[in-house]
Write a structure and sequence with these properties.
Layout lengths: L1 H28 L18 E4 L5 E5 L3 E2 L9 H11 L11 H14 L9 H10 L6 H17 L2 H11 L6 E2 L1 H9 L8 H8 L14 H17 L5 H9 L16 H15 L1 H6 L3 E4 L3 H21 L7 E2 L8 H9 L8 E8 L4 E5 L4 E4 L10 E3 L2 E2 L14 E8 L2 E5 L5 E7 L6 E5 L17 E2 L5 H10 L7 E4 L24 E4 H6 L3 H11 L1 H10 L19 E2 L1 H12 L3 E2 L5 E5 L5 E4 L3 E2 L36 E2 L1 E2 L3 H16 L15 H7 L5 E6 L5 E8 L2 E8 L9 E2 L12 E2 L2 H17 L13 E7 L13 E7 L23 H6 L2
Parallel strand pairs: 1-5, 3-4, 23-24
Antiparallel strand pairs: 1-2, 5-21, 6-12, 7-8, 7-12, 8-9, 10-11, 12-13, 14-15, 14-28, 16-19, 17-18, 20-25, 21-22, 26-27, 27-28, 29-30, 31-32
Helix pairs in contact: 2-8, 2-9, 4-5, 4-6, 7-8, 8-9, 9-10, 13-22, 15-17, 15-20, 21-22
Length: about 850
């Protein structure tokens, strides 16, 4: 009996020693243990996501891709696959699995090796959130203690949800939601049983069993998971047999970008990093909702691309990228290897010329596929000589191409076309006129070629886009749309220029006394200079500052009238918005609101709204009337009827804004009577032909030697500015050579705002406004319409082609009648003293 007594004493001694040891270890590690209660409010590292205002994903930033899911969003079979593989007794144990620990201890004693399967899911959560991955006994003790504590704080479902969302599953995918997207391009609810088994097998070996890197091992791992599910009766024999026969279908799927708008996403990314810091911005799970309209943005991007290609092609073909061979063609693989060294630029791809026909060519793409270039895709390629000269139109494919050359090609609808990388630059931006929300923003032809955002960063000479702003000041100082301004050469130079600066018209034609409205519509230079002289340079600068331009960018001389200041397209479109909204300077903004990782809105835009002062609510209003429709496209949660709304500053009276808009409509629609030979076009007559709406207005702009070209225009719901030029400020846009075979829509002569930037604006507005009703602008109070004589701007009793109705601010309309055309005194008749002085 002594030996039994000794055994009992030894057993209890060992137990006591074990309890003392465990207690000592517990209190030893206790100070280092974190508070597991923080798991209740843990914020998983999720990427920054940027959306359009209609919820289309624009971009995603962050090293970790994670799509957090709730427990009830995970398919039951995926839960079974994970538990059967990782922790079959998860819902039974208290955080540690005694059976698993005993098995691991036995393996350690008998083999000296540590078991890989001893940790429960709770232990893995503890390790993943609070501990390092080093394999030490003290870390294991901490892991066990933390697991026990976690089970006391969280439910089983909450623990499993953390595990499913946090596990690294390869290819930057964290959590099952991201894995479903990365490997299969699906949501969890769309996964098949074999796909769920594949994902369930990844946590222990996200690299070795990755279906993209090692499909054979991934298949074996998946089938092992399926066997565990069969063993645990989560699936039946038939489901098992069907599933193990399924092929590996995983392939890499990037973020589901719905709207590719890199210049927009870069603006937002920079804002978030500046405000929240890089680490927080990229991992905080922020969802940024911009003001961008996805449909309009797509139209703007396409309009810019089409217009840049059109400019580039009409200036000629600059030749092949290189020559791969001259005599005997190398092996196909050698050709493909050479092509692979040249990266595609967006949809413009390198190709090798394999064969030439009379008016067609066969080329091979980097994929090895051979395609045909038809004559319609080649005939544009007159040889480029300079920006001002091009060669003769080609007659055969051999005039353009040679077998063995590497060239650029691009797809157009169902065909392919010979192409080249454009050297010209362009930008386009549009605003909602009532609150300044940026609807579209295209900072350049290709973000992959240049991340320089020309909408916000490029200051370029404004050209004739400045003239409506100059004439606004003139109307405020007493001019009218009927005021005669002398369209004659200026012989008195502006001495402040330092040289004998004598502005000229383009073309160099002068028509004598001309009504202001016609001068603006036809962009007559000398009339704009005389209008500037009337208002004074300093007054004009003050007004331009009110329109949102920086005073330091405005040169204090008469070249101001012709657009010598350098400004950004965003500043230009903001200024033109003033005419569309009735005289208010709105503040452009591109972020509507920002949600944090929990869906709580932490930032909400509060734009300055263009609100009619006469309709603003006051204490006596029962039902305040907003200045615009509450149901309009403005994304704001408040409107003019809200007493907390911010109001934009009025910088132009509604009457002057209306008159300038009427003049800018003439830029597009012209005027006069074509049947009697008195009709005239505005500089933007192409817009009228394409868009065919009478609620559009705009202004062309061209700088000296056509280094910058502009078109800015609007209707009551949308304002847009397009710019085309070279990033090299010294390079001119040039001319296109005349040739009898050129398509009629290819421009002959010099590039200009109407011919170079205008087509992008026309195409964009055509599609943007298509299907929407016209919105005629009603004259505001204080505007009168009287019939005037078109030659003199005075009142007229005639109703024929020599007269027409014109708008005036009440009190500024003419009071005298024009004399009969047969009168000997019918040279100059004008009742405006200031305008009379302008004529001489």
């Amino acid at each position: 009996m002594k030996w039994l007594k000794r055994i009992v004493i030894a057993f209890f001694s060992l137990m006591l020693l074990g309890v003392i040891s465990v207690t000592a270890i517990y209190f030893y590690v206790l100070p280092d243990l974190p508070d597991v209660a923080t798991l209740k409010t843990v914020q998983l590292q999720t990427p920054l996501k940027i959306y359009s205002k209609d919820g289309k994903l624009i971009s995603q930033f962050g090293e970790k891709r994670r799509i957090p899911v709730e427990y009830d969003q995970v398919p039951p079979q995926l839960v079974n696959a994970v538990l059967d593989t990782e922790d079959a007794r998860f819902f039974e144990h208290m955080g540690i699995d005694p059976i698993g620990i005993t098995r691991a201890a036995f393996i350690l004693v008998t083999t000296g090796k540590k078991s890989q399967g001893a940790s429960t899911i709770t232990q893995q959560v503890a390790r993943g959130f609070f501990l390092s991955r080093e394999k030490t006994y003290i870390r294991k003790v901490k892991e066990i203690i933390l697991a026990l504590k976690i089970e006391q704080v969280l439910t089983k479902q909450e623990i499993l949800t953390l595990y499913l969302n946090r596990s690294f599953l390869g290819n930057r995918a964290y959590g099952v939601g991201a894995a479903a997207q990365v490997y299969y391009g699906k949501s969890l609810s769309e996964l098949t049983l074999p796909e769920m088994a594949m994902i369930a097998g990844l946590p222990q070996s996200p690299s070795a069993a990755n279906p993209l890197r090692n499909p054979v091992r991934a298949l074996n791992r998946r089938n092992w998971v399926l066997s565990r599910m069969l063993e645990k009766r989560s699936i039946n024999q038939q489901e098992y047999q069907t599933a193990i026969q399924a092929p590996i279908t995983a392939s890499y799927h990037g973020a589901e970008i719905d709207l590719y708008s890199p210049y927009v996403s870069e603006l937002v990314r920079d804002y978030m990093v500046q405000k929240y810091g890089e680490e927080e911005a990229y991992t905080g799970g922020y969802n940024v909702y911009t003001t961008i309209d996805s449909r309009l943005q797509n139209e703007a991007q396409q309009a810019v691309r089409d217009n840049v290609f059109a400019y580039d092609e009409r200036h000629g073909y600059r030749g092949a990228i290189s020559t791969i061979w001259t005599d005997t063609a190398p092996a196909k693989q050698q050709i493909l290897d050479t092509l692979a060294k040249t990266n595609a630029v967006d949809d413009i791809q390198p190709a090798a010329v394999m064969q030439l026909g009379e008016q067609n060519a066969t080329v091979m793409l980097t994929s090895g596929k051979q395609i045909e270039l038809a004559w319609d895709g080649i005939k544009w390629a007159r040889s480029y000589i300079s920006d001002r000269r091009q060669g003769a139109a080609p007659k055969t494919a051999a005039d353009v191409l040679k077998v063995g050359e590497m060239v650029w090609v691009r797809p157009i609808n169902d065909t392919w076309q010979l192409s080249q990388i454009p050297e010209v630059s362009s930008a386009m931006v549009s605003l909602a006129p009532l609150d300044g929300a940026i609807q579209t923003l295209v900072g350049g032809f290709s973000f992959s070629m240049s991340q320089y955002n020309r909408v916000t960063q490029a200051k370029r000479q404004l050209g004739s886009n400045i003239k409506p702003l100059i004439y606004t000041t003139a109307l405020e100082k007493g001019y009218t749309l009927a005021t005669l301004i002398n369209n004659a050469p200026i012989n008195k130079p502006d001495l402040r220029q330092g040289t004998a600066w004598r502005p000229k018209n383009s073309p160099d034609v002068y028509g004598g006394p001309t009504r202001l409205k016609v001068g603006l519509a036809q962009s007559v230079n000398v009339m704009a200079v005389r209008a500037l002289r009337y208002v004074g340079v300093d007054n004009a600068i003050d007004k331009l500052v009110e329109f949102g331009f920086d005073r330091e960018d405005l040169n204090r001389n008469e070249s101001l009238a012709l657009g010598s200041p350098s400004v950004t397209p965003l500043q230009v479109v903001t200024a033109f918005t003033t005419f569309a909204n009735g005289g208010y300077l709105v503040e452009p903004y591109y972020i509507d609101h920002i949600d944090d990782g929990y869906g709580k809105t932490i930032e909400q835009a509060q734009p300055a709204l263009a609100c009619d002062e006469a309709k603003l609510p006051n204490s006596n209003d029962i039902a305040p009337t907003p200045a615009f429709d509450d149901n309009a496209a403005s994304p704001m949660a408040y409107n003019c009827a809200n007493p907390k709304a911010r109001h934009a500053k009025r910088i132009v009276s509604k009457q002057v804004a209306f008159l300038i808009t009427e003049a800018l409509k003439s830029v597009i629609w012209g005027g006069g009577d074509w049947n009697h030979g008195t009709g005239w076009n505005g500089t933007a007559w192409r817009a009228a032909r394409l868009i065919k709406r009478h609620d559009i207005a705009g202004k062309t702009g061209t700088t000296n030697e056509a280094r910058d070209t502009w078109f800015s225009g609007f209707n009551p719901s949308l304002v847009a500015t397009a710019w085309v030029g070279f990033d090299d400020h010294g390079r001119q846009l040039g001319r296109t050579a005349w040739n009898a075979n050129a398509p009629k829509d290819q421009i002959t002569g010099g590039e200009s705002g109407a011919k170079t930037a205008g087509p992008a604006w026309n195409q964009f507005m055509y599609h943007a406004l298509k299907g929407t009703p016209e919105q005629p602008m009603q004259p505001p109070e204080g505007i009168v319409s009287v019939r005037i004589d078109l030659a003199t701007g005075l009142l007229s009793r005639k109703t024929d082609y020599t007269s027409d109705f014109e708008y005036f601010i009440r009190g500024t309309e003419p009071t005298e009648y024009a004399q009969d055309n047969n009168s000997e005194d019918n040279n100059i008749f004008i009742d405006n003293k200031a305008a009379t002085q302008e004529l001489f």
